[in-house]
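Weekly structure sync, notes
Attendees: PL, DS, HV (note-taker this week)

Item 1: Thioredoxin-like protein
DS walked through the input record. Source organism listed as Mesonia algae. Sequence as pasted into the shared doc:
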Amino acid sequence: MKVTFTFLVALLTLISCKAQEKTSTNTTTQNTVVSTSELTPQDNNYSGKITEEDFKSGNLKEWFTPGYEAYEPEEEIVEKINRNIDEYKIKVFMGIWCSDSRREIPKLYSLLDKIDYNQDQLEVIAVDRSKTTTQGYEKNYDIQFVPTIIFIDKNGKEINRFVEFPQETLEEDILNIVTDQPYKNSYAD
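Item 1 (cont.): predicted structure, written out as tokens:
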């Protein structure tokens, strides 16, 4: 029963964020053509860098703030993460349009704020539904599902990645990654 439920959850998640749509360089909105380069982080079709302030303002705060405020990670795990996470830069690929990103990204920011993580070491990039950006930020990262949270060491080497949904909880998965414990996301070989 648990396996069936887990499979169904994984399948629904896959369908919700893997749906591929062809997008053009222009988006039609209320009979007005808007170039994607004119989109802002407040637009569902936006792709490019995005900040915590972007999430906390405009229409993004409608889903960001409740998830951010409701997230209560285990204190013991937060303390362990805090001892190890400064060794890593974090690069996040997410979709403003994606339910999994809307679930996990507020939690990630809440966790990082609780440990006072240096935000200069964090880069968050919104991708379109085809998992690309007009700037090509996703090149060399093989982004197939979102959110993808990549942990990079001081030498610029990718250590591991969280993909789409936690294996345990977000904080437990991150703890396993930053303490070099065995960890595989659902799509790892």
